[in-house]
Records
---
Amino acid sequence: MKRLIIPVLSGLLILTGCAPLNTYYKPGASVPTLNKDTTACEVQALRDVPPSTLTRLKPPVYIPAGRTCNAAGQCVDVPGYYVPGGYETYDPNDGLRLRVERQCMADKGYAPVSIPACPDAVAKAAPLRATRTLPRLTETSCVIHNADGSFQIVNRG
């Protein structure tokens, strides 16, 4: 079991290194302040728009009978069958809760952004450090994900 977990976790770490950073952004804000404001807005959104988990039945789907033939003209009849349905849970308040969170962050001066991951050459050349204060973003800004969960925003060029 341990042999399977380590490669999977390693793969996830590699994938997050290539992923963009999706966050709220306000140039000049400190990362601890960003984290505090984000948590406060998430809590407010949960308070104002609580989860309402609902369950619905997904009906079975019938796949009708058919015939498949190869290039030589040999055909096989495939009988019809049902794909079982099942249950799914969902929260109809998810969208509204996200809008309340975004409005709260906008009221604090933040905007949602997606910062692309830095190319490998840039990531390897940059000194290892974490961003403490959010810099102005430019068209050449990119992010390096650090192993400890922090990030570094680099303005190339």
---
Amino acid sequence: MSGYAVICCRLVFGVVFAVSLLSKTRSRGRYADFVAAVPGLAPGIPVRLAAPAVIAGEAAVIVAMVLPGTAPLGFAVAVLLLIAFTAGIVHAIRQQQSVSCQCFGASKVPVGPAHVVRNGFLLLVAAVGLIAALGPGYAQPSVGVLTSAVLTGAVAAAAVLLTDEIADLFRSNH
């Protein structure tokens, strides 16, 4: 079972952080949008430090999810990033700031409770992945278990990437 959990969780973080990183760095305009959102989510931290630190952290998670034997480090870095991201989101909500997340591409949706829930889910996935990766060694899973883990991870990653759209389905203004 731990092999299933590690594969599934590695896939979730590999995909989610790859999309996040690419969405911020694919063009100068996208990077500028990301940098413009940083002060509202990381008050008191200089943008010239915070923005590159987020980019480097996300890249480190991706690399750790791909390389064999480094998943525990990747999950630990992901937890630290998610705690920081969640703290920034909660701060923006409490200050009633209209700051868009810029997590997975151009978004005009201000951060809100759905983003906190999304990050809580990702923290849970990181904890499961970390515990499973640090647990006793596991045998290479069968093709069926591997396929199931990949499909589960892909569905979970898709749900995370579509947070704004899913939350919009439940808003009462429709």
---
Amino acid sequence: MNDLKPPRTEEFKLEGGKVLEKVKELIHAGNVRRIILKNEEGKVYMEIPLTWGLVGVALLPIFAAVGALAAVATRMVIVVEKVEE
């Protein structure tokens, strides 16, 4: 028997300036497995796999990349895969 549940997904459509703030909020929530950033047409710009060991300084390059991407995009879709516990 396989007791693993498929990840639950949520989508958020945000203006470019609010993307970094939302990504930080999602990472700090702790139950996120992966974050996918894409445009409204569905083109994937970035996938961020998250693990339990990813904290602090390791997140700085991710935040910098998300911030740069959000600066050039007017609207982005954030797809979040959450771990069901």
